[in-house]
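sorry for the late reply, my laptop died twice this morning and i had to redo everyting from scratch. anyway the thing you sent over, i finally got around to it. pasting the sequence first so we're on the same page, its 531 residues, then the predicted structure underneath. double check i copied it right bc i was rushing
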Amino acid sequence: MTAYETDIRSIAALKQQHGSAWDAIDPESVARMRAQNRFRTGLEIAQYTADIMRRDMAEYDADSSVYTQSLGVWHGFIGQQKLISIKKHLKSTNKRYLYLSGWMVAALRSEFGPLPDQSMHEKTAVPALIEELYTFLRQADARELDLLFTKLDAARLAGDETAVEFIQSQIDNYETHVVPIIADIDAGFGNPEATYLLAKKMIEAGACAIQIENQVSDEKQCGHQDGKVTVPHEDFLAKINAVRYAFLELGIDNGIIVARTDSLGAGLTQKIAVSHEPGDLGDQYNAFLDVEEIGEGDLSDGDVVIRREGRLLRPKRLASNLYQFRRGTGEARCVLDCITSLQHGADLLWIETEKPHVAQIAGMVDQIRKEIPNAKLVYNNSPSFNWTLNFRQQAYDALVEEGADVSAYDRADLMNVAYDDTELARLADEKIRSFQKDGSARAGIFHHLITLPTYHTAALSTDDLAKGYFGDEGMLAYVKGVQRREIREGIATVKHQNMAGSDIGDNHKEYFAGDAALKAGGKDNTMNQFG
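ok and here's the structure:
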């Protein structure tokens, strides 16, 4: 017996207990409403999606070709339409997630207006967006099931038992739009207690995976900007522990923590780490500092010194009161960060790089896997990279290494449109196309995401429409560029009233008021023009 049938029977029995007072209650209508509201709380969603991610991680460990993907979204509607598109074109949401980008929260969701990615936005905006995303995904379920229920009623009315059986099987085996969200908590928005409190709100909203970075919270910078400042490992591990405690308190025992290191591009630290004995984590962190050896007579008032192997070393302190690391230590610091995070409670890694280069990422992962054989990455396929230029340069370098003639190309000018139809450009595009597959096979990338793609697509599509509508095309710009494409490509938003829930509301009105219901979807509804 399916859940749908079980609900009908249980409500019918309950109705019988209440006698005539419940005469207006239809058990199948209740079963339909329950099916349309499968997830009643954010914690139910967090547990359901955590189970999905853990299963996917285990499958990736067994076969690196089954990596996962997501696109960053900044509004519930955008997330909803992404999942609707995935189900329409790819038939399943399997291995496809959502990413919640702190960058886009700052740029698009703050009451202060557009802000840089520096943890200046309201931290409550993060759990609010998680809740909004899942509200829209659940509404997508409700809408799609409502269409199936309408078809089921029509098939019953027509006496088509084959159609009834087929539609009922679609209802019974319905795949939800609810998928895991990897949610960005930045550097934790304060001390570990602040991190714990925010993590709880995010989990209660439905987040099963929280990504946290090792930057100083009050100096946080976008991963692709200069001026990044990291914290000693003990500070970062306290925040990882804070997130784990939040998961455990709320009963999501298999919640996922993604530990991000910005050390590759971060040349500064705010603190000298506490070291208790040679070779401990604090000592290893301090070993990367840019220092100068001094004698006791060289000390000045206010100097900070560290002692190593009998020598006095003075870390170079900047006017900002920050300390700098030695140049060329970024990769080694990343490797240490990653090993340390995995050994102290993190589940997945995020290495923020300055370019998309499989060999570079793999070089670090190989070192990490000497200590943690199943280490896996979440990797940012960032719009901050110039993908065309990077991969054309990689293709150029590969051709040089093969001894090919590259005299027709200027490596410094490979973005030039004149190269678009060349063999080098085709080779580069193929490398871009296979980057995710290659990165997962060679560099341990379990999850590929694009942080802020829908920021760019919203701007691009709006530019296309505005250019034509306010120009010579007028209304044709909308009809040809938007509505005609929606109709012919089966984009559900062409029936925007239905997408916004009008038909669901009509059916509810009928449940509640029967024949007396005043419904919006009659013959005069202009949505009927779209079939």
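The mean pLDDT is 92.
thats about all i looked at so far, will dig more tmrw
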